[in-house]
Specification:
The complex is a heterodimer of chains A (about 425) and B (about 200). Chain A is an alpha+beta fold. Chain A is built from 10 helices and 10 strands. Chain A has 2 domains: about 220 residues, no CATH class; about 150 residues, Alpha-Beta Complex (Sulfite Oxidase, Chain A, domain 2). In chain A, strands 2-1-10-5-6 form a 5-stranded mixed sheet. In chain A, strands 3, 4, 7, 8 and 9 form a 5-stranded antiparallel sheet that branches. In chain A, β1 and β2 form a beta hairpin. In chain A, α1 crosses α3. Chain B is mainly alpha-helical and about 200 residues long. Chain B has a domain of about 110 residues. In chain B, α5 packs antiparallel against α8. Chain B is flat and about 70 Å long. The chains are: A alpha+beta (about 425), B mainly alpha (about 200).
């Protein structure tokens, strides 16, 4: 029985049909909307409009229309939005795969186009499917530090998301009414092509199209079922549950993190004691040596309106020190619970170089590290003025370790991890 | 018959003569308009939407392709092609082979006991392949101070647990099915296999 994939009888699964595809479609409609919004928020959290050093997609044009100064409260804001973005993205992998499987016969359907609109719609499906797989693939690779994709992750994932969402919105507008109708009318999931339902009365666009294009998904020659459609849906959901169960712990500490058996920052902590929590980039991997961070060698250079001061770590310790309980939240989706940081307030440092503390400006923070996308980062005035924003010297009651930024690091509430510069060497206050 | 709410629009309540007129007008329409052109072009609403899609996609796409256009395009299109023409046939073929093999032994209904653990294990491997395969192990260890050695072991243990759970479930259900007789169930509370 060598039949061609363009023949409906080639596809034998009894599961394919409007109900199965519609359920998965509605789940993706909600899930991908959340992914897109949290993704846009993550870009806003970098404050890309503040300074070129924060912006890896400076050609964004109108795609940055929604940008706003990222707030400093609640302190867990980025921890939540980015944790949802990454964890939900992983959870949706099986849903996406199942959805694509459920509609794969349409890829081979003939004739290739019934009308100009139909031809263009099929072309837009390349953007939809290619875009979805491109976004999921780059995201999943990036959190595993596997930078095999062609270019900067930020550029690919941001512009790729816009190409994808362009096709996604159109697909949703054209298909969601049908999907909801299918869910309402097809009460019994096992129904075949339902005839006599009032589809045509509601005036769907596309005069030359069959009454229900998704009916072509139903196999005319199905194999005997090995599972019900509800069972298959449970199977897909089970895949999501398994992925979440082995990933979601990367946003918590202690025993919960240990449950994230396969997540890059799951499992055991890298160390024990006050500095034992998760590390994004170690000192060794950034080429930071003990010689340049020693008490004799290291000086913090702070520049402001009318003067520049150079401070040793001992001198910094003699300034008024404050504490703040803040988490670390990474763009890769993992985070720690609140750590107890202690150091000099950023606005006090602005005060040292000629600014009113309550009117402190933006600041450009430079690290000792010589390479890396965010060795220089900019913070906005609202972040500098927040009393919990610190140049931290201690964490959880101890000196910072080299891997956590010794001699001094920035910690700002609700900011993405990369903006919390480690091994700070120079701070330049002034409007950016 | 349900009584109809007069405030609600219901086409059945329309004047039958007006309905007849509408039907006739609709029947005339193909003669007055060249249907063939409409069929070739399709819905104008759909065309407008698609024009928006391609305009926005082009705006972002130019930026996406700015640096290394050929490789990025290869990734974008390649992802779809690889999925549709390699991954789907591979797993669908494997699935068909399993259900046919079970069919040959008269146990087609047990396909799910193989399909579920195999697919879930494959899903974990697909998502976490860089870590499980160890291809990023050195870079990962140097960046995070964490060991990459455990991912393969974790994946294998989860896979073992999935298959063991599936086997246990099959065993329990088989035993229960063979003990449907209520008299026998009353004499033996628990099946011996359920430890």
């Amino acid at each position: 029985m060598p039949r061609s994939p363009s023949s409906p009888a080639f596809w034998r699964s009894p599961l394919r049909g409007p109900w199965f595809t519609s359920v998965l479609g509605v789940v993706l409609l909600v899930g991908i909307t959340v992914l897109f919004v949290t993704g846009l928020l993550s870009y806003a959290a970098y404050n890309p409009n503040l300074s070129a050093v924060n912006d890896k997609t400076p050609d964004k044009g109108i795609l940055g229309f929604y940008l706003f100064p990222w707030p400093t409260r609640p302190v867990w804001l980025y921890r939540l939005t980015q944790g949802v973005h990454v964890t939900l993205g992983i959870a949706l992998v099986p849903v996406l795969l199942a959805k694509l499987w459920s509609v794969v016969p349409k890829l081979f359907a003939l004739p290739p186009a019934r009308s100009l609109a139909h031809a263009l719609e099929r072309l837009s499906l390349l953007l939809l499917v290619g875009g979805a797989l491109f976004e999921f693939t780059t995201g999943v690779l990036n959190i595993q530090l596997d930078y095999v994709f062609p270019g900067s992750f930020y550029t690919l994932h941001f512009y790729g998301a816009w190409v994808f969402i362009a096709a996604f919105v159109t697909h949703a507008v054209l298909r969601v009414p049908t999907a909801f109708r299918n869910l309402r009318h097809v009460r019994r999931p096992s129904t075949g092509p339902a005839s006599g339902s009032p589809e045509r009365a509601s005036g769907l666009p596309g005069a030359g199209e069959p009454a229900r294009p998704e009916d072509e998904l139903v196999s005319p020659d199905p194999l005997p079922p090995t599972v019900s459609r509800r069972g298959a849906l449970g199977f897909v959901g089970g895949g999501s549950v398994l992925l979440v169960a082995t990933t979601a712990g990367h946003g918590f500490d202690g025993p919960l993190r240990e449950t994230a058996l396969l997540a890059p920052h799951g499992g055991a902590e890298p160390g024990s004691g006050p500095n034992g929590f998760q590390i994004n980039k170690t000192a060794a991997s950034r080429g930071i040596t003990a010689t340049e961070t020693s008490e004799e060698a290291w000086r913090l250079v702070v520049t402001g309106k009318d003067r520049t001061v150079r401070l040793s770590r001992t001198e910094l310790r003699e300034l008024p020190l404050y504490s703040a309980a803040l988490p670390i939240a990474c763009v890769e989706g993992w985070s720690t619970s609140d750590q107890w940081w202690r150091g000099v307030r950023l606005r006090d440092l602005a005060g040292l170089v000629g600014y009113e503390k309550d009117a402190a400006p933006d600041v450009l923070v430079e690290s000792l590290q010589r390479h890396g996308a965010f060795r220089v980062a900019a913070l906005r005035d609202n972040q500098v003025r927040d009393p919990r924003s610190l140049l931290a010297l201690f964490v959880n009651g101890e000196d910072l370790t080299p891997d956590h930024g010794y001699p001094a690091r920035v910690i700002v509430p609700a900011a993405p991890g990369v903006l919390n510069t480690k091994w700070v060497a120079r701070m330049t206050f002034g409007d950016l | 018959m349900r009584r109809l709410d007069p405030r609600r629009f219901d086409p059945r309540r329309l004047d039958p003569r007006r309905l007849e007129l509408r039907r006739r007008l609709a029947a005339l329409r193909p003669a007055t308009r060249p249907r063939i052109g409409r069929d070739l072009i399709g819905s104008p609403f759909q065309l407008l939407l698609l024009a928006c899609t391609f305009a926005l996609a082009a705006y972002a796409g130019v930026r996406l392709l700015a640096a290394e256009w050929s490789r990025v395009a290869l990734w974008f299109v390649g992802a779809a092609v690889l999925h549709d023409l390699v991954l789907v046939p591979l797993y669908a073929g494997a699935d068909r082979a399993v259900s046919e093999a079970l069919d040959a032994t008269g146990h087609r209904d047990r396909t799910m006991y193989v399909r579920v653990p195999a697919a879930l294990s494959g899903l974990l491997l697909l998502v976490w392949f860089p870590l499980i395969s160890g291809q990023v192990a050195d870079h990962y260890r140097s960046a995070t101070a964490l060991s990459a050695d455990d991912f393969l072991a974790h994946w294998l243990l989860i896979t073992a647990a999935l298959f063991a759970g599936s086997a246990l479930l099959l065993l329990l259900r088989s035993v229960r099915a063979s003990r449907r007789d209520p008299l026998r169930r009353a004499t033996k509370e628990r099946p011996p296999a359920a430890h």
